[in-house]
Design brief:
- This protein has 460 residues and is an alpha/beta fold.
- The chain is built from 12 helices and 11 strands.
- Helices cover 38% and strands 13% of the residues.
- It starts with 37 loop residues before the first helix and ends in a 15-residue tail after the last helix.
Length: 460
C-alpha cells in the first residue's frame, strides 16, 4: 500500500495502483558484516552454523541490526533491536501480482510490509522476520513451508517464543499454520485476512468481472484484452521486445484495467441516475459489494491480471457458476432472464477445489490464540470471510480461542484515477499495535482481553 497502511507484500500488494512506492526509503545500515559489535558478529556466525547460507549482517543506525540470508535457497530477512527481548514476530505477506519479484524487503523495519505492525513490534524489543514465498500470485503452500522453516531457524537461534502474523492472503497462511502446526507459535494475528476459504473469494472476483463484462460490453468502459473469464484479461509478464522493467510494466497493466472502471465511476458521478450509475448499482446489488470505486477496481484488477496464475496454482477452476441464478431487485424479469442467459459461465474442477481447500479452507479448530482484525467493509477481502471464521469457531466449540475485532473502514485515494475508495487492509499502525498488544496480554495472562481500538485516522 502507499496511501494507507497495508498488511500485504512490500512492493507488490495490489490493493492500490502505486504499490511500488513502498520500495522507497533511505537505507539505514552499514556495509555487510562491517563494524559489527561482538554480539552481532556472534549472531552472524551462529546463523551460518544453523543452516543459513549467504548470511549478511548489517548494523542499523538505531543500534540494532539486520540479518539476510537463505534457508534451503529461500530468502529471509530479519531485524533485531538493540533491546531484543529474545522473542520474535514472523510476518507472512499478502498476495502479489503474478510476475512480481519474490524477494522480501531486506530491512523489514525500514521497508515494513505490514503497515506498521513489524515496526511497532521492533520498537517493543521483538526481532521481526519474514520469508519470501516460492512464487508470486497465489502462494499459500510455499508460504506455509517457508514461514515454518524460518520459525524453526529462529528456534535454533534461541528464540523460544514467537508470534505469527499475516495480512490478506497472509491471513490464510496464518490459518493454515495454526490449524496444522499448533505448537509452532505462541500466538497469531490476522489482519484483513482471507480466513475462511478461497472458493468464495475467487468466486466473488469472477462474478464481479463477469458482471462488469456483461454490463459494459460494446461500451467505452469495456475492459481490455481477453474477455473469457476463465483466462487473465492481460498479462503482467514483460514481453521480451519491451525494454521496460518488470514493476513499471505491471503498473501499466494494472492501470489498463483500472482506467475504464474509473471512467465508469466518474461518468456516474457526473450523471446521477444515468446509465453508468445504473450499471454500478446493478453490479453492486447482485454481488453485495459496496457501490464505490475500489470495491470494483481492486477485485476486478486482481482477477483480470491473476486468473491464469490462480488456475495454474490450484490446478484448475475452483468456482462454479454454471447453475447460479443472478438476481437483484433492481432487475426486471426480462433483464434478469437476459443476464442469466448471456453471462459467462465457469465450471469447477473437483481436484482444484480440493487443493484450494487444503491451502486453505479453515476449520475453526485451532489451539493457538488468534486475534483477527477486519474492516467492516474491505474492498478486496469481504467481511463475510471474517464472519465465516467466527461461525466455524463457534460451531467447533472453539470460540474462546478467537478474539475477533471489527474496525470501521477507511477511504484512501486511488493513485492515477482521480478517485478515492475503501481501502483493503485499512488499518492504522495504532490499531495494529493495539491488536498485537492484546495478543501479547492474552498469551501472557491466559485471559482473553477486550481491547480498546484506536479510531481510524481522520480524513486528510
Amino acid at each position: 500500500m502507499t496511501m494507507t497502511p497495508k498488511l500485504g507484500r512490500s512492493g507488490s500488494a495490489i490493493a492500490v495502483l502505486a504499490f511500488a512506492a513502498v520500495l522507497s526509503g533511505a537505507a539505514c545500515s552499514t556495509p555487510a558484516n562491517a563494524d559489527l559489535q561482538p554480539a552481532q558478529a556472534a549472531f552472524a556466525a551462529r546463523a551460518t552454523a544453523q543452516q543459513a547460507t549467504d548470511v549478511d549482517v548489517r548494523t542499523r543506525a538505531d543500534g540494532g541490526f539486520t540479518v539476510n540470508g537463505r534457508l534451503d535457497g529461500d530468502h529471509f530477512a530479519m531485524a533485531v533491536p538493540s533491546n531484543w527481548n529474545g522473542q520474535a514476530l514472523v510476518f507472512a505477506h499478502g498476495y502479489s501480482v503474478p510476475g512480481s519479484a519474490i524477494a522480501v524487503s531486506k530491512d523489514p523495519v525500514e521497508k515494513d510490509p505490514s503497515g506498521g505492525l513489524m515496526t511497532g513490534a521492533y520498537a517493543q524489543g521483538f526481532a521481526v522476520a519474514h520469508s519470501d514465498f516460492d512464487k508470486a500470485g497465489v502462494g499459500v503452500e510455499s508460504a506455509v513451508e517457508n514461514t515454518l522453516r524460518l520459525r524453526a531457524f529462529l528456534g535454533r537461534m534461541g528464540v523460544t517464543d514467537a508470534y505469527v502474523a499475516g495480512g490478506s492472503m497472509g491471513g490464510n497462511v496464518v490459518m493454515a499454520i495454526i490449524e496444522t502446526h499448533p505448537t509452532a507459535f505462541k500466538g497469531a494475528l490476522s489482519g484483513c485476512g482471507l480466513i475462511d476459504n478461497w472458493s468464495d473469494e475467487v468466486g466473488l472476483l469472477i462474478d464481479l468481472r463477469a458482471l462488469y463484462n456483461f454490463y459494459t460490453r460494446d461500451t467505452e468502459y469495456a475492459l481490455p484484452g481477453e474477455t473469457d473469464i476463465r483466462r487473465s484479461a492481460i498479462s503482467t509478464t514483460t514481453p521480451d521486445a519491451i525494454g521496460l522493467l518488470g514493476d513499471p510494466y505491471r503498473l501499466l497493466q494494472m492501470k489498463r484495467i483500472a482506467d475504464p472502471i474509473a471512467a465508469l465511476f466518474k461518468a456516474a458521478r457526473d450523471s446521477p441516475g444515468g446509465r453508468e450509475d445504473q450499471i454500478i448499482a446493478k453490479i453492486a446489488s447482485i454481488t453485495g459489494v459496496t457501490p464505490e470505486p475500489a470495491s470494483l477496481i481492486v477485485p476486478i484488477m486482481t482477477v483480470s491480471l491473476g486468473m491464469d496464475d490462480m488456475n495454474a496454482t490450484f490446478g484448475g477452476f475452483i468456482y462454479d457458476n454454471s447453475a447460479k441464478v443472478y438476481a437483484s431487485p433492481l432487475l426486471s424479469s426480462e433483464e434478469s432472464q437476459r443476464l442469466n442467459r448471456e453471462i459467462a459461465r465457469i465450471t469447477a474442477d473437483p481436484a482444484a477445489v480440493a487443493y484450494a481447500d487444503r491451502w486453505r479452507r479453515s476449520t475453526g479448530r485451532f489451539s493457538t490464540p488468534l486475534v483477527a482484525l477486519h474492516n467492516r467493509v474491505d474492498s478486496l477481502v469481504p467481511y463475510s470471510q471474517f464472519e465465516g471464521l467466527v461461525r466455524k469457531t463457534q460451531a467447533a466449540g472453539n470460540a474462546d480461542r478467537l478474539l475477533a475485532i471489527t474496525v470501521p473502514e477507511i477511504k484512501t485515494p486511488l493513485p492515477g484515477t482521480g478517485l478515492e475508495g475503501i481501502a483493503h487492509c485499512g488499518f492504522t499502525p495504532a490499531q495494529l499495535g493495539a491488536a498485537f498488544d492484546a495478543l501479547q496480554a492474552w498469551t501472557t495472562t491466559g485471559q482473553r482481553p477486550t481491547p480498546v481500538m484506536p479510531p481510524p485516522a481522520p480524513a486528510p
